[in-house]
Amino acid sequence: YRRLHAKETRLSEFNRTERKAMLGSYTKVLFVRDPFHRLIATFLQGMGISPSFSSFVQEVLDSREEHEAWKPLVSLCQPCLVQYDYVVMFGFLRQELGHLLRRAGLPAGSLLPELTDSQVQWTYRWLSEQMFSELSAQQKQQLSHFYRWDLAAFPFSSSYLSD
After folding, report:
1. Is the residue at 161 inside a domain?
2. What broad class describes the main subcellular location of this protein (predicted)?
3. Is 162 contained in some domain?
4. Predicted TM-score (pTM) of this structure
């Protein structure tokens, strides 16, 4: 395709026929993570200048420029545009990646992260509880609205942002 090797070519820049043909030749894997967990990770990595999680969330909500670290997944990965072959949920990486690696004919055991899924889930459940309690009712409602399409598109049933 004429722009296939151009730098930073976005999928949306290809016409429908080109997209369909190009994407048909790939195995498409989407890694998704609870949007509230993404916010926590972004805050803990120091990507915001705020001293508290609550003020960081307010910074995100007030921001006119959506940063990729907290931008809704639906706007980043275009699940309506791309028919993904696999959707891998953070927190189930070890189990789901093992399946993907076996399907690709690769040795699953040696390539997987050491941390177990239950440890990841427990850690984020604890962090979510602590950080969610810092937020005002209005911030909680605004975050739920901000991530409404992610919450509708992906099964984040235990997310603190789910209604």
Report:
1. no
2. Golgi
3. no
4. 0.74
Does some domain include residue 118?
A: yes
Would you put residue 9 in left (φ > 0), alpha (ψ -120 to 50) or beta?
Answer: beta
* 47-86 tens-digit pLDDT: 767 889 999 999 999 986 678 888 888 888 877 778 888 8
Residue 133: pLDDT over 90: yes
With a cut of 70, say whether residue 99 has pLDDT above it.
yes
The range of the structural domain enclosing residue 106 comes to: 25-153
Instruction: Answer for the pair 112, 94: CB distance below 8 angstroms, yes or no.
Output: yes
Q: How many CB atoms within 10 Å of residue 21?
A: 11
Distance, in Å, from the CA atom of 132 to the CA atom of 156, rounded to the nearest integer, reads 16
Question: Cβ distance 32 to 154 under 8 Å?
Answer: yes
With 0-12 / 13-18 / 19 or more C-beta atoms within 10 angstroms meaning exposed / middle / buried, residue 70 is: buried
Element housing 74 (H / E):
helix 73-77
With respect to residue 94, please indicate whether it lies within any of the assigned structural domains. yes
pLDDT of residue 1: 45
Q: How many domains does the chain have?
A: 1
* Residue 46 per-residue DSSP state: T
Q: What length does the chain have?
A: 163
